[in-house]
Design goal:
This protein has 138 residues and is mainly beta. It contains two helices and ten strands. A hairpin with a 2-residue loop joins strand 2 and strand 3.
Length: 138
């Protein structure tokens, strides 16, 4: 018994199976009509994100505050640029995170703004782990 498309579009929670996502890969799903990027980060990506001085960021936020404890390898963000609402491209830009080609905003592997006109980090939607390999968004 799955909800119909109109219920999902209105904001019903969705479940996403993470098991097919390889390390270093990301997928895009839709929740409430918004693109959601789910990234299976490598140890290198996590280490690079955590090595950044939070004080140097335009929108200071630690990587640990953007992921769930015990599941640091998973980054879940709303894929809408905080500048003018464009859709950034994953695994692009100077920080191997997200790049918005419309106006040049560059986000790191934690979805934090690093360069460009975007005023804030990519938003993290409400989500929770329902098992080690499945999340519920919404």
């Amino acid at each position: 018994m799955n909800p119909d498309a109109s219920t999902i579009a209105a904001g019903a929670p969705i479940e996403v199976d993470l098991s097919p996502i390889a390390e270093g890969q990301d997928i895009k799903v839709f929740w409430r009509g918004k693109p959601i990027y789910i990234s299976h980060r490598t140890k290198k990506q996590i280490d690079e994100a955590r090595a950044v001085s939070v004080a140097s960021l335009p929108d200071p936020q630690a990587d640990e505050a953007r992921v769930k404890s015990g599941h640091e390898q998973w980054l879940v963000v709303i894929g809408i640029c905080t500048h003018l609402g464009c859709i950034p491209i994953a695994h692009e830009g100077s920080y191997d995170g997200f790049f918005c080609p419309c106006h040049g905003s560059v986000y790191d592997t934690s979805g934090r703004i690093r360069q460009g006109p975007a005023p804030s980090n990519l938003a993290v939607p409400p989500y929770q782990f329902v098992s080690d390999t499945k999340i519920q968004i919404g």
